[in-house]
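in:
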């Protein structure tokens, strides 16, 4: 899968052209996706369960952020100087600090598209509500 280029925000301008800066997005493998999904599972006490009973809960927000960070080739979200400039410690904090909520939601949709997801997690949530 070829990398995609996407203007995550119109606020970031290419100094040479004045056009919105393009962020580079790569796809990941299914096995890497599975590892990221697994890292977003939390063990919590079972609701209404007896003491000592636990269940697994999936943190969808953490998953989306981890996927977005992993798939972002440019800008380098792990660059310490970039993190310092936004006063954000870590790539996951940086991406959510750099983008507005709307820009972030649109970027997540583009990342999921590049990774081959036909529907986004938000589409599934909306469908489940109906």
């Amino acid at each position: 899968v070829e990398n995609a280029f996407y203007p995550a925000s119109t606020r970031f301008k290419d100094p040479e052209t004045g056009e919105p800066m393009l962020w580079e997005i790569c796809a990941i493998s299914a096995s890497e996706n599975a590892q990221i999904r697994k890292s977003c599972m939390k063990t919590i006490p079972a609701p209404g369960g007896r003491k000592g009973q636990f269940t697994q809960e999936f943190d969808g927000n953490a998953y989306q952020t981890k996927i977005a960070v992993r798939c972002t080739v440019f800008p380098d979200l792990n660059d310490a100087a970039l993190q310092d400039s936004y006063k954000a410690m870590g790539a996951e904090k940086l991406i959510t600090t750099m983008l507005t909520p709307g820009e972030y939601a649109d970027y997540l949709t583009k990342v999921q598209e590049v990774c081959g997801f036909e529907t986004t997690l938000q589409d599934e949530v909306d469908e489940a509500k109906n």
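note: The helical segments are 30-39, 60-71, 80-85, 91-98, 101-114, 121-129.
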